[in-house]
Design a protein that fits this description.
about 200 residues, alpha+beta, NADH Oxidase, 7 helices, binds flavin mononucleotide
């Protein structure tokens, strides 16, 4: 297992080779078998390719432009725009884009009670587990993945386009066209505290 964990990298350049339906289904199945609070399985995986992918990326472009003009949920974060544009380029190269939506999620802009917040946090944790399962399964198959939080630049646009649930994340999948070096991790002393 450690081999796969250490081998997984965020892949940002992809070959122009499609992923077969069978292989993609295997990756999605790995996501479906993630744990979730009360086994709610708070996810729907929306697989986007071809012209649909172009539509989604056009919306993301619009969202970034909107943010640059100081509108939208990520307005006022100019340090993030260059990175968002780069992510958009990575997404364009990858043959498959998967949005994970929470069918019972609540809009970001809602007023939340603490209990609702905890409920949503649990669902988001489960979706994170599903995403990592997919990334690891893809790694074992020689397929690269990129976890994309920058889709929130187009939160309103993509929410409407997806047409259901609350968007939690997106992931690009494709055959890697580069071999990214591992990025350093914080030291064990910094992040592990043992109390006994
Ligand atoms: C929640 C989350 C959101 C992320 N969003 C993006 C993104 O929008 N664009 C991007 O290029 N990478 C994104 N990443 C990838 C991280 O930059 C990457 O995981 C981190 O730099 C460590 O590199 P590694 O995945 O190769 O180990 C995201 C990762 C996570 C977990």
């Amino acid at each position: 297992m450690y081999n796969v964990i250490f081998k997984r990298r965020s892949v940002r350049f992809f070959k122009d080779t499609d992923i077969s339906k069978v292989d993609m289904r295997e990756i999605l199945r790995a996501g479906m078998w993630a744990p979730s609070a009360k086994n709610r399985q708070p996810w729907k995986f929306i697989v986007v390719k071809g012209d649909s992918k172009k539509e989604a990326l056009d919306l993301m472009e619009k969202g970034i432009e909107k943010s640059e003009k100081g509108e939208g949920v990520l307005a006022g974060a100019p340090e993030l725009y260059t990175n968002a544009r780069f992510t958009l380029r990575c997404m364009a190269e990858a043959p498959v884009l998967v949005f994970v939506v929470n069918p019972n999620g609540r809009p970001l802009t809602d007023n939340w009670t603490t209990a609702e917040k905890i409920h949503e946090l649990s669902d988001v944790q489960a979706i994170g587990a599903a995403a990592e399962n997919m990334a690891l399964q893809a790694t074992t198959m020689g397929i690269g993945s990129l976890w994309i939080g920058n889709v929130f630049f187009a939160y309103e646009e993509l929410h409407e386009w997806l047409g259901e649930g609350e968007m939690v994340l997106a992931m690009s999948f494709g055959y890697p066209n580069h071999h990214p070096c591992p990025l350093a991790r914080k030291s064990e002393e910094e992040v592990i505290e043992v109390r006994d």
